[in-house]
Records
---
Amino acid sequence: MKQRERRPGQKKTSGPAGESRRDDRAGRAPKPVARPAVTRDTVRETATPAAVSRPLMTRSGDRPAERVPVILESLGAGDFHLIDSGDGQKLEQYGPYRIIRPEAQALWRPSLAPQIWEKVDAVFTGDTDEEGTGRWRFPREALGETWPLNLLGVDFLGRFTSFRHVGVFPEQIVHWSWMKEQVEKAGRPLKVLNLFGYTGVASLVAAAAGAEVTHVDASKKAIGWARENQALGRMEKLPIRWICEDAMKFILREERRGSQYDIILTDPPKFGRGPNGEVWHLFEHLPLMLDVCREILSPKAVGLVLTAYSIRASFYSIHELMRETMRGVGGAVESGELVIREAGLDGKTPGRALSTSLFSRWVPK
């Protein structure tokens, strides 16, 4: 799902930010899985800013109230939970599969015995850098490329990608649950914009709750995966616009058109390179992106949500940016970290908290 796993490094790749580890498989090694470019990281490389731009708006008025630090925590949900972590790795349950992936922030030692870590279905091996590629080792038996998963009542496909991601970032469940609640209690169809939408789980959650959704991603493969997820859940009739386009170009055009949204989710990469040479740098381009997002929020908007992965910064950097961007509109900005808490083998035994990403969220009250 961000930090994301969350991803340092700025290598030039054909996909957005990747993750990998060294292949240490014993015996006969399975071939790399197909469609490696369909990872969130790969998708992120193509999510680049538009060549056209505009000056930042001059904002006046009081800054919104603040709530900091806010720690949004998940113990797992649906078919996912974090079993254990340590020694730079994490042990996760995704539906029927127990998986080991790299996790640089797991500086401690694992809590569970080594034999538990050995009884896994898949281990990602390769370059540990966020944008490096690698392979999956399957200790028990060769597994298919995809398998069904469910979160918040939405069915979707997990996929073993060459960038160590599996098609969902479960720490985002806290944002999705919040969004689902807002949509369900609104008493009217809310318009939701999902920027850098990846495989569409958030878009499906919002649409299933009753929202009219616009899903934007620059990767055709990501859009294809999202449509697969929609078909898997027999949700083809839900009101979702799938837009394959650069996110900045899209929102700048929406601003010119006077389009408005009640909830905006934006989950940009740290670095991206587009097919026409466009380059996205989070620290350089995020102020304009938020500025435009404010302009396309409706007068009765219920939230603007930003998640940031793999950046060397305090959450205060995006918190203060969000407060400056939202000057004069009232409400509050709450910022902090998304964390996933270990839940043990049974998925119900709380353990240590693993930080995954930074976030900042404006709400009207």
---
Amino acid sequence: MTDPGPARRGRMKLAARCRVATEAPAFGMGVFCLILLNAALMGAETYSGLAGEHRLLLHTAEQACLALFSLEMVLRIGAFADRPKAFFRDPWNLFDLAVVASAFVPFVRENTTLLRLLRLARVLRTARFLPHLRILLIAVGRSLPGTASFLFVGGLVLYVYAMVGWVCFAESDPGHYGSVGRAMLTLFLLTTLDGLTDAVRAGLQISRLSILYYASYALLASFVLVNVLIGVVLNSLDEAREMEDAERRDPKRPGSPPPAGPGPDAPGTDVRERIATARRALDDLEASLPAAGPRTDRRLEASHSGP
């Protein structure tokens, strides 16, 4: 069995050195501060006077941030040089790569509005360095199927009540219930219970039964459905927390660096290196046997020739 080729050993050395840099606490803190600085620069550009007076300084700072972000991505990619497929299995790596690489796309660089939106997406990269924020984002993503079902049920309830409101209040209050669209907009605003008192007073002037209409709608839309949505989000939050804990316990999760251990040049880091080391030890042992043979024979003859 032969040793790994020079190219493979070079990739292993590169990956080990890049991992030492990217796994350092100072590296993560530096990237986190760089993201906050980039966000502050974007905020400063919204002030026309400040942006006009220090346009060159802000542009230079933005280019410096882009260069540092690019260097960060090069180091992160280099940390996976010995297993490049693992880099693309991590969603956070793909997100970071897309955000940073978009600044070099010709069409994006020429579109100021799109470029600013993509620069704003860099702020979301703070989730990589804030575990609790990362859990919240994962929870929001996992709650989307349940939220879609909630929106369907909520829209159905809103439509039914809007039709009932159009039938009952269209003639007396056309400004709010003149059509099903206006009625749905009115009821949607009442979901927050803002203006519900004025709506009830106006309804009582039309019919005393309107109190049942508004009371049932407030109970169903503002309390039952909202609590159902909160339950969906909390359930997704628990699932996201369990997923994060499972990934921390599993050292072989996609995109995670290999566990700390001896470097690529140390014996035992690779199966082939272990086999090669064992073969060399056996060869040395075999080479030493002929030299030890004559001395062993002399000792046996001396023992037989004694008194």
---
Amino acid sequence: MKSGFIGIIGRPNVGKSTLLNQILGEKIAITSSKPQTTRNRITGIYTDMEYDNGNGRQLIFLDTPGIHKPKNKLGATINETAVNTYKGVDLIVFIIDGSRKFGSGDQYLLDMIQEVDTPKILAINKMDLMKPEDYLELYNRYSEMNIFDDIYGVSALNGTNVEELIERLSGYMEEGPMYYPEDMATDHPERFIVSEIIREKLLEYLNEEVPHGVFVEIESYEEKPNITDIGAVIYCERKSHKSIIIGKGGRKLKGVGKSARMEIEALLGTKVFLSLWVKVKENWRDSDRTIRNFGYKDE
């Protein structure tokens, strides 16, 4: 079959996770209006056994964290994850937000990917928010750089031109093995996806600073006949943050828990009993040991 690995890279908050979820037709990566939502490298697996008269295709997407100027050791680790990913794939999809102005962050990434010989496709996201003349101007600007093999305008949120993009990506894949089972959408365990759903709800419910200082750890996960019992700890960096997360009378934490539980039940297809606790681990984003323990960095 046609198979290969595709790295999705770009600045924070340009729609990388939204595009991946749209391609797969299901949610495996959390999304948020806040930047730097993705911390880990998320693997998404797109398999189509009907492609090419039944020979099939399998596109394995690596959704990387948005590369940014790091403010702590966690940020530096996140950047390292993204950079290492694009160096080891068969194809790079570089995503930009067409509704935002070109900036130094864009140029930094362009300079970075120019160093590798890997084929590159540019996806201009949020084309639905652009005027046709603005899209054409941006298209020509990037085309004249002679960096990209193809340029596509898409709307990751609405699905516009996503099928056409998948077809073009498939054309770059070589004959290869089937790396994952047909019904597998991600190589991450359910526990990881559950922790990410909880973190997404925290991003939605909390103010600007607190979300980036939270980490969700699944402490218990027990599958029973009619219900899955899950216990999770939300770590934050300050006592004041703990109070904000819990909220007056525990209302904010209850809201996070209810919203997360509903989505987890849809994911697992069973009733869920979700228990949440909040603990303080000061300055964990600048602790190499804690970053490793939380799974962001290899030993």
---
Amino acid sequence: MNGTIPQWKSSLKSIMTIKKNVGTVSIILLITMMMAGLAELCAYVFTAKAQLEASSTPKDLPSLDPEQLEFFTEYQGTANIPYKSHVGWQSKEFHGRYINITGKGLRVTGSPVKSNTAHTIHFFGGSTMWGYGVRDDGAIPSLFTKRTGLNSINYAELAWTNRQSLNRLISNLSEIQKGDSVVFYDGYNDAVYGCYPGMVGAHAREQQINDALSVTSYTPYGRHSLLFGLTAFVRETSIYALYEQIKSRRVHQSDSHSDCTNHVTAEAVSDFIINNWRAAEQLVKSRGANFYCILQPSSFFTERLNPKTTLHDIESITEVYPYIIRAGSNLSCFVDLSRLKIPKEHYFDIQAHLTREGNEIIAGTLAKTIE
């Protein structure tokens, strides 16, 4: 044999070596998958806990009565608001004991016991006008209807700015009839969202939508590419959700200064709001209806009600509101409720949301203003 290793033995040795390497790689892959699975499980538990806390009763609220607690339990079923063209997002149909939303995405408003007129009042705004924290009949439009006997429609939506309200007005302009009144109730969302860096005129989900569109649809990264598929898979994991939460906290730190401490930015945010009101007024008047642009009250503009109030939010309101008041005084539609006296106990939270009693104050004030 001349001391040489037979061919079959050499082949067998190679096979054994390959098997050994495959076994080692398999063990490494198995351990890696187990570690990834454990990391995913931990991230899922952490993000699920955070989401539950976010959708549950906020911890900085005053003591809640049973009705308010029931509202938050039911509210969790409406939290996943789908995308809607032109307005960003819009509530889906929902039917509950405290919250009812029509197929058109409108919060249900109580009908007047006896209508005084065929005219309708169309209410637009963010979560305060929508009725965050109260049942259907405790929202401002419902209380206004009960007080005045006038028909009302609640077009407001959670977290909307007045540009989104303007877009919804355009989509529903044919619903506005001669003699009707249209109310835009704005200020808080427009200032707070607009005062983040580079966000003048933006709505609450601009960054979220940009992140979702960050992978281009063109080849070689198109929707049928491997990279796109892997990216889409990663974005569905809890680890990625945890990363997004951490990034969001870094971008919007609770103690970060508002970009509106720069008076140029503050005035730009105000101008954006004012121009939207002007456009809405022209559209409404073209239908022979009345228009009211309301600067909503905020606890931040009168006094700091809670130590958890964020520096960004306080500075955004206190810096932007004076510009809105100054420019709004030149508008025939303008009604300044920024300093309306509302007892602390009627603020539902540290922002601008009100209890039913607080909404009663707003409804009563609007009843004296609206024709």
